[in-house]
Write a structure and sequence with these properties.
Elements lengths: L8 H15 L8 E6 L5 E4 L2 E4 L4 E9 L2 E6 L4 H16 L21 H8 L3 H18 L1
Antiparallel strand pairs: 1-4, 2-3, 4-5
């Protein structure tokens, strides 16, 4: 059996999401696209100079009819999902709890595995986990 925690985002798309979309009855030739840009990117203007920012991309776009998109599907790796759950926790309880390993013992973190599995297998060890959390805190303080 495959260990989803060790798969890349693209592997997850190929092995799980695409087959699930097809199994649900979506036609791969006419009803969905993979790895597609859905904006041209933000336009930046400075005086007479202009440039375009990076285009937004989606892992999948599902179409009701040609040129009528109805859904965007995004695959995420587990580390990103854990960090997003930490952001939600921060929004609810404040940043002082975000560094505590105890937070990994409650839902939704238990969905990713035990605290040890999250730290060691998803992030590659305590040091890398703490670096990711510190980076998240730094970004939060920039916004605040």
């Amino acid at each position: 059996m495959l260990d989803k925690k060790s798969l890349s985002e693209r592997d997850i798309c190929t092995k799980f999401i695409t087959p699930a979309i097809v199994k649900a009855g979506w036609d791969a030739n006419t009803q969905f696209l993979e790895e597609v840009s859905f904006t041209d990117g933000k336009i930046y203007i400075r005086g007479k100079l202009h440039s375009r920012g990076q285009a937004k991309r989606a892992d999948y776009i599902l179409y009701y009819k040609p040129n009528i998109p109805i859904a965007i599907v995004e695959a995420k790796d587990n580390a990103r999902q854990v960090l997003e759950a930490l952001l939600d926790k921060y929004a609810d309880e404040g940043i002082e709890n975000i560094e505590s390993f105890k937070v990994l013992n409650v839902i939704p973190f238990t969905d990713f595995g035990s605290r040890i599995e999250i730290v060691d297998e998803i992030f590659g060890g305590k040091k890398k986990y703490l670096e990711a959390v510190t980076g998240l805190e730094t970004e939060l303080y920039k916004i605040a």
